[in-house]
Amino acid sequence: MVKKGLLYAESHEWIKVEGNVAFIGISDHAQDSLGSIVFVDLPQVGNTINKGNVFGAVESVKAASDLYLPISGKVVEVNSALEDAPELLNEDAYENWIVKIEIKDQTELNDLLTDEAYEKTL
User: Fold this and answer.
1) Ordered DSSP codes for 8-72
2) Assigned domain for 111 exists
3) Is residue 119 part of a domain?
4) How many other C-beta atoms lie within 10 A of the C-beta of residue 48?
């Protein structure tokens, strides 16, 4: 399932923009491919991360996968609930964001995929 109204990276992260803040998580396809998620490595609040760089990782019983930031920005909040309950990403990948960032450059959003374009890559 691809949630409508979000933007997507080819590396299977989704992004929901609210003003100058972006919520970022992994797609339903990504969580399904990984299987049962057992650990989420979260970045430090305050870190500035450039577009395309690793901001964390998700580990499952099958594999570990790096998470890539779809746009540049500063980490303003992490979803700390995932530290104790990483399986929340399996339960609902779109409700359970991983990181919230302050967007550095709104024009980078133009490089992301619409929900329709992302669905065609699957």
Assistant:
1) E-TTSEEEEEETTEEEEEE-HHHHHHH-SEEEEEPPPTT-EE-TTSEEEEEEESS-EEEEE-SS-
2) no
3) no
4) 12
Residue carrying the six token digits 């969580």: 31
pTM of the predicted protein model: 0.95
Per-residue DSSP letter, 89: H
Q: What distance lies between CA 31 and its chain's CA centroid?
A: 11
Structural domain range at position 89: 7-106
Count of beta carbons in the 10 Å neighbourhood of residue 11: 15
- By the 10 Å C-beta count (0-12 exposed, 13-18 middle, 19+ buried), 105 is classed as exposed
Tens digits of per-residue pLDDT, 45-59?
Answer: 999 999 999 999 999
